Predict the 3D structure of the following.
Amino acid sequence: MSTFVAPDIAWGPLVPVLVVLLAAVAGVLVEAFVPERLRRTVQLTLSLAALAGALVAVAVLWGDVRRTGGTDVLAGSLVVDGPALVLQGTVALLALLSVLLVADRVTGDEDAFAPTAAAVPGSDYEELARRRGLRQTEVFPLVLFATGGMMIFPATADLLTLFIALEVLSLPLYLLSGLARRRRLLSQEASMKYFLLGAFTSAIMLFGIALLYGYSGSIRFSEIAAATATPGGTDDLLLVGAVLLLVGLLFKVGAVPFHQWTPDVYQGAPTPVTGFMAACTKVAAFGALLRVVYGMLPGMRWDLEVVLWTVAILTMVVGTVAALVQTDVKRLLAYSSIAHAGFVLTGVVALDDSGITAVLFYLLAYGATTLGAFGLVALVRERGTRDGTDEPAVLGEATRLSQWAGLGRTHPALAVTFTLFLLSFAGIPLTAGFTGKFAVFSAAVAGGAWPLALVGVLASVAAGFFYVRIIVLLFFTEPAGSPAGADGTAVGEPAGGERVDGADGADGGDAPVASGVGGATAAGAAPLAAATADATAGPGTATADATAGPGTATATATATGTTVERGTTTVVPGEGLTVVAVAVCALLTVVLGVAPQPVLDAIGSVAVLLP
Amino acid sequence: MHTLMSLTTPAVVTAVEDVVAPVAWDGARHAAWLVVVPLVSAAVLLLLGRRADRWGHWLGVLASAASFVVALVLFLGLLGQPAEQRVHDVSFGTWVDAGALTLDAGLRVDPLSLTFVLLVTFVGTLIHVYSVAYMEHDVDRRRFFAYLNLFVAAMLLLVLADSYLLLFVGWEGVGLASYLLIGFWNHNTAYAVAAKKAFVANRVGDVGLIVAMGLMFAAFGGLDFATVHAGVAGADTGVLTLIGLALLLAACGKSAQFPLQSWLGDAMAGPTPVSALIHAATMVTAGVYLIVRSGEVYAAAPTAQLVVAVVGAITLLFGAIVGCAKDDIKKALAASTMSQIGYMVLAAGLGPIGYAFAIFHLVTHGFFKAGMFLGAGSVMHGMDDQVDMRRFGGLGRYMKITYVTFMAGWLAILGVFPFAGFWSKDKIIEAAFVPVDGEPWRAWVFGGIALLGAGITAFYMSRLFFLTFEGQKRWSAKRDGSAQHPHESPLLMTVPMVVLAVGSVGLGWFLSSAGFVEWLEPSVGHAEHHEPVLPVPVIVGATLAVVLVGLVLAWRMYAVSTVPVAPPRGTVLTRAARQDLYQDVVNDAALVDPGRYLTRSLVYGDKAVVDGAVTGLGKVTVGVGDAVRRVQTGYARSYAASTVVGLVVLTVVVLAVRG
């Protein structure tokens, strides 16, 4: 009988993760014990404090790690080294900004989340909850739990921790995806799909973990790496195991052919959550992928190169090409994020020391830009009338690209900022995107993967097309809709225009978004959208709208048969939290593009993975 | 001060001695104000917009006058120094630092540049004053003065720069100002077209300057005058010849020399003060400045130098012939300008013996031609903007001041003793008769052409003068139908004319006796005396004789006899001269039409081939995108299936590669 020996835990290096997870636990308690009226404030403060605390902790640990190269903790289950700290810092920063998006009540006193997620969409119960002004403050602890998982994910040193971190970060995301206030069926569908496919690939990954354990007799990365150095008879076990493990990770980063959940989930999830997923999940997943490829499988690089090359090329090409035909902003950004996953992969595949720095920098740059872009999407709203009345109301997000036409004239600040993000996506110099792409492609060339860099550059050129297309749309296209919108006067004034079918508004993406469910989505979402409009149509809100900018009614999803006026799109300022987050993202995009050297140097000085 | 220049001394000289090497002088720093003051004034006038309408023109005058004062101070400072220390390079810090090319932004203050500076600021200020009255009824007078100031700044930068690159900045600046001012009344399409024509012709010349700079950088590793001039000694003659020809091309564009002269006549579309300042006195002489400034290069490239002389000779005849046929007073004056600059270029092409005379003639010409242009402006002012000389006649009695001042300019350009032109133009004719490199045929050809040109000049300038001021009245009605009442112009216009007329009378004698040629020596080098192929008195006598013939001929044809109001058909040569000797037709056939066809076919090629490829690629991409979209069914089951397929394929591939 062996006695249980408690491992000697060095608490110091764990502080960033612990702060976030403890705050998440505390958040759950807040739900239980703090009166409803204070909950949002307390939760928001708690979340921001925890994430800021994590950032501070990362900064405190930085000097130490830079000197020693890092340590492993929890008996080797986690490593806190340079790349782990950089990734944790990045995740914490982006999560902090995401919390601002999540918390912002963009229209009236309504945030982006359903009042009661458990209610059947369109039911009386839901309407009642909405009228009561119920709010879902559980999203804050959920975000914190996910963030905690994301901070563990790139710091894991063994397969089991890897798997657990994956689940910790994924489960809250499945839930968060289903909480959208508007278009609830689409949101629930997204949640369901994400969960099913996530569970599916988790199983695949677990299978791979089992095979790797079977091959090496260990779950520790370093020991598996050592085992691969001595060829044995069961190499096939190792290879298949490695491929299965990689598939699990590639699913999370949204690489082709494991990407198909991305557009549907990104579109359906509440936009703040989409931004959070697109930015933070990708950072965390790529961090883990980096550690697996560089730390566990370098001995098999010749065997696995073909997998990674194929996936990288496919991801870049499919992401770019599919984005060209999108008509929905959120889906377009989803495909763009797929293409970017391909670009980052070229840096990972490089298996060159400069690749680590390049990937880390790219993730920071891409994360900031993406978060900013989704933040702006949340602000662009449809303006319509309440169901069956003439009362003006700000409705859901205007995600159809055609609705964004001419925003450059009516809302120049928003359009210019969005243009900045698009230019960064396209990789135009003086934006963060350019520096990032340059870094990963240089690393790929240095690592001998020049064909990948070539495909990457060509894909960037093609991608430039759809980014510039949006810029043209923003600035050089007449806004669709009535002339009443142009003079900037009549807010909510009934505008002349054609009557549109509601289904048009509900889906905007790939042909039938679950053709079976799509109609139902529209049908279900419509009354909701109309109903929520009731609350926003109070006198106070109407004035707020008036200041928000010119615009009139726009096409709304009303499958119920009532018609709405078609008009221009509007931009709402919200409480300012989103604006702050977007501004920070824009600042990062510019700073990382104009003067990236200090950041590159700082990352480069610690970019050594601990075995 | 004793002078070289007198009737009896063999005035002409050859064999260069080295020009003076630059030395440091702190006072030269103040030269920067020359450029800065008018530039700031131009910026203020343009930026303030209509708010500056009431006082803007006076600010323009003030800026120009301030520059003149600075120039005067610099001039006195330079005079106070010994001759061998009068060349100063002053640097204002590194401007270009690009790989092998490092260049300071610097100015060169020396007798040559100061001569130009004084001319530009003095005549410029007078013309500013004149414009206050001339442009009084134009709503855009402030903008006009902003452009004039811009021009002055650019022109001063051009002549003060100590490197070809900085010179090029000024070169482009005057080109821009010229474009803006020719097209100042651009609501008139013909004027806008004229501005464009000037711009394009100048652009052709600018290419020459750019090529020259490229060659200099390749050959000498630098673009400042000091490096280039020092590098000439060891350079290949072929390269030097190319540089010389490229610089000549630039000079041809800016100075309206054959074959790039076609723009100058059309440039008269600009307001008359512009014609006087830019297209007579200053900017168009920039080409002469460039050639003289590059004297070292031409000294080592005799072929290029010969081409310069040939171009000058052709242009002086060309302009003179065209001038005989023009009925538009400004266009006749423009042709005359072209011809006179031809004299200067010819002189510059004679080498060191001609440099000083080229500049000398440039200065006197700046006075008398500007004076005559202002006179023409005064006539137009009094005659309801009429420019057709056949509609003038007898104006001398109505516009006394204009008449007298114009007469001074007329006698000066004819080269009648003791007017200004006699001291400068006749010296060029004498220099042309000096055999260069011991080849007498050149002396006979160039000397003969110069002499012939003097005769034709006398004819067409007398024609212009008699048609305008003598003979019978041939006035047409005003544009509003009322009768013409010619009247003298206001004081603001006549005073500058009088000042310039004084220069036309006495400047030649004054400069000559004050030792202008010695003054320039530190910049252009000293030249030894040399005998022309004919004795000097014979040349002087012959010149006066042909001038007299031309004058008498014109008197008989245009002052005594009746001049038809409608131009007669005329001889073949007259008709050709009216059409600028068909230069526009030649240009159109040789350059414009082929260029048009080329662009048309390029546009077609761009649409069919390049755009076709791009849109084709776009279509293919979109097609692929559609295919991808079809795979995106929305069903979780199919997503899972594709994940599995991907997984299996990857595994098989890995194992296959391994196996």
In short: Chain B has a mean pLDDT of 85. DSSP finds 24 helices and four strands in chain B. The interface with chain A takes residues 618, 621-622, 624-626, 628-636, 638-640, 642-643, 645-647, 650-651, 653-655, 657-658 of chain B (CB under 8 Å). The radius of gyration of chain B is 30 Å.
